[in-house]
Batch of 3 targets.
Target 1
Amino acid sequence: QVLLVESGGRLVPTGGSLRVSCAASGRPLSRYFMGWFRQAPEKEREFVAAINWSGEDTYYADSVKGRFTISRDNAKNTVYLQMNNLKPEDTAVYYCAATLLTRTTLSQRDYNYWGQGTQVTVSS
């Protein structure tokens, strides 16, 4: 069992930057392929970014590619999502998730553990 806790979400202006964090406890984060997902009001939850156990391989949704960067610090048991050039359409609750699968997966169905989410609001 692993417990994930997101933090760092807040109100930012359009074009601003923000870094959200996901701290894990219970088991070493290095065992897990990690992902960030988001859910905007009245929309389905969607994939944002993912990172393999070592941090060498990263994956992004087309909507955030070039603006967001996912990273991890296994020594700190933490995964980060750096968000730059934020747009109003990035407004959502951001969730981190972990999967024990050893293959690459961007499908939320494959993720076993989820945090409670952190609200990111981008003002227009």
Target 2
Amino acid sequence: QVQLVESGGGLVQAGGSLRLSCAASGIIFSMDVMGWYRQAPGKQRELVGTVTRGESIKYEDSVKGRFTVSRDNARNTVTLQMNSLKPEDTGVYYCYARDVRATLPSWGQGTQVTVSS
């Protein structure tokens, strides 16, 4: 199980942009899936966007066209570029990664994103 560290969260106004980064460390064989989940206040944690090693990408419907997930396999990092942010995007964003040989996925500690009206 690898360790994940997120960075880049903060406070922005609606319509603004923010870029989150996540770095993986530890013994990594091969990252199968990397991406981001989020949890809004009083809500369940939900998928934001993930990308497989084969570059297959999945996004939550509400962020399509606004958010972009990308990964750098050589550096074992994944980023989330968020544009046209809305107050509904507010929440704690968690980095997610699954090594192909791991039984369970790994989660970062979370980084707060707050979008004001």
Target 3
Amino acid sequence: QVQLVESGGGLAQPGGSLRLSCAASGRTFSTYGMGWFRQAPGKEREFVAAIKWSGGNTYYADSVKGRFTISRDNAKNTVYLQMNSLKSDDTAVYFCAAVTRAVPAGVWHFARESSYDDWGQGTQVTVSS
């Protein structure tokens, strides 16, 4: 099992930026990929971005493409989500998740919740003026 702890959430103004971090511990050697999901009040949890640990392939939801950037630091077992040009619609609890087995390449596979085995507790992001 991989333990995940998110941090960096908070309040930002529309057009502003936030950087989320997700630190992984435990059986990190088995991590195949990491992803970010978010859930707004009354809505389904949705895919935001993902990164393949080996190779660094990245995948993004259309709603955040061009504004958000996912990256990783292998030495620190940490994944980041840089969020720029924030909108009110970005307000949600953001969850970090880990894939611990091989998953076929492509956004379709990495956007599915069933591809992920371990989840963090979430961090709140609020975008408001």
